[in-house]
Amino acid sequence: MKTVLLWFLVATAYTVSAVPVNTVVSDYSEDRVYPRFIKFPDGEGNLHDVDLEAPVDQELLDDVTRNPANNLYLLYTRRNPTSSQTLVINNAGSITNSNFNPRVPTVVIAHGWLSNQDTDINPVVRDAYLRREDVNVIVLDWRRLAISNYITAANGVPAVGRGLGQFLAFVNSVTGAPFNQMHLVGFSLGAHLVGNAGRELGGRVARVTALDPAGPLWNYNSDRVNPNDGTYVEAIHTDGGYTVGGLGIGSDVANADFYVNGGISQPGCLTNICNHNNAWRYFAATVSYDHIVGNQCSSSWQITWDSCSGSRLNMGNSNLRKWGSGRFRANTGRRYPY
């Protein structure tokens, strides 16, 4: 009897130790409390100290709010796949004299904090699209705000998003490019940014894709990306751990929320930065191959234990008529194309 009891206790202890330290947080990550001082990466994967109670640069915020032209809108097409053309809001000639084609879809890419037009997400996603189909790719460079301290950048995201929405409304008025042919893709802070752009347009854009939306300062933020920001809104979660190390929001924010490999740690990654950045790497791969498929889950436990058995939905891709709702777990490999 003692032997049986000892075996049971050992087995129980082993089972408990095998439980992931960071379970999926979609049911309770809203309650996550970040400490005042955290570390958050720039677009090159370097960690920076962030004071979440740092003073906001109000002068910069006011200028960003007043003037959407502070941001760069850089057009790439199959006629100019690597050399951009600059589009300027309220300057019709900058659009009509460019390679912009209103008869093909338009994809907008928005980077995250401490990033710019040259940050890896932009060329990787751009090239995946241009190899697959004839599209207008517009890279939004919002570095003027993005290079400020994190709290100022986060506070300015809604204004930059509204500015992007106003820019796209101007493009529509000049060229007739329909909103239902527009797909807005944003990473980290950029995920909330494109959500606000879609909201500015009344949720009329075909798709909004939020790539591991930033967590710090966004848990209860009414300006975060939400399901009403586009006809179809999708979130890809890759670093949403409940511990303070998680960089992503880790909770449901979209029509369809994909928790990749459980939504916390990714194959081949040893750091939160790698987990976080894999969101845009996975997305770019799905644009090329449309091969990562999720199963719908009824609870966060199913996501954690990889026991989701509901309906299947392809994650990411470039389909402008895509639709789905609910939580999904999608599994990947550790090497491209995952």
TrEMBL record:
Keywords: Secreted, Signal
InterPro entries cross-referenced by the UniProt entry: AB_hydrolase_fold (IPR029058), Lipase (IPR013818), Lipase_N (IPR033906), TAG_lipase (IPR000734)
GO biological process: lipid catabolic process
MF terms (GO), sorted A to Z: lipase activity; serine hydrolase activity
CDD domains according to UniProt: Pancreat_lipase_like (cd00707)
Compartments reported by the entry: Secreted
Signal found in the keyword field: yes
First-listed, main subcellular location of the protein, grouped into a coarse class: secreted
Family: Belongs to the AB hydrolase superfamily. Lipase family.
Protein name as annotated: Lipase domain-containing protein
